[in-house]
Amino acid sequence: MIINPKEIYTKSNLLSLLRLLLVIPFWILLDNFGDPNVRYFTFALCIFGAITDVLDGYLARKFNEVTEFGKIIDPLADKIVIGVIILKLYLIGIIPTYYFIMIIGRDLIIFLGGIFITSRIKRVLPSNMLGKITVTNIGIVILLFILRVDTSYLIFKMIYGLSIVLIFVSLIGYIIRASEFLKQKNYESI
User: Tens digit of pLDDT for each residue in 96-118?
Assistant: First the structure.
């Protein structure tokens, strides 16, 4: 798969690249997690990142700028930003080890599997709805941790529990989807 350099400079891809650069302020801001003002600013920055995520997909479709590069950079930016935030929250003792491992493990499996699938079928699989729902739910959990919501609240427990279920369900969904594309590719080559 060859990416045309002109594909990089679209409105939607530049938004994805901007979102990727947010890892720097997130990392720095979370060093001062104890300061409520820093947490609120971090929360606002997360909302800004989420808006750029929604906006880049909208712009790509509206201006017919869906590119192979965009199919790579958009989910990669999401995974890196969430990974950096999760890592920092883990390092400062805000999230439990098992949750950190589940999120990072899922994303690594999907990332490495995506590289393998792309090398086999010579195209990038676009994100699917289940993956987007999972990332949105994990994002909400992260926001609740950033706002220091009481983790004993029933609503927090429900959202947190749902994120754990979605981590496993979406991973299984990605594996099934990838195997279907591989089977389809194998049938085409016979």
Answer: 999 999 999 999 999 899 889 88
Q: Where residue 1 falls among pLDDT bands split at 50, 70, 90?
A: low
- CATH 1.20.120 for the 5-188 domain, yes or no: yes
- What distance in Å separates the CA atoms of residue 163 and residue 157, rounded to the nearest whole number? 10
Rounded-to-integer distance, Cα 128 and Cα 139, Å:
17
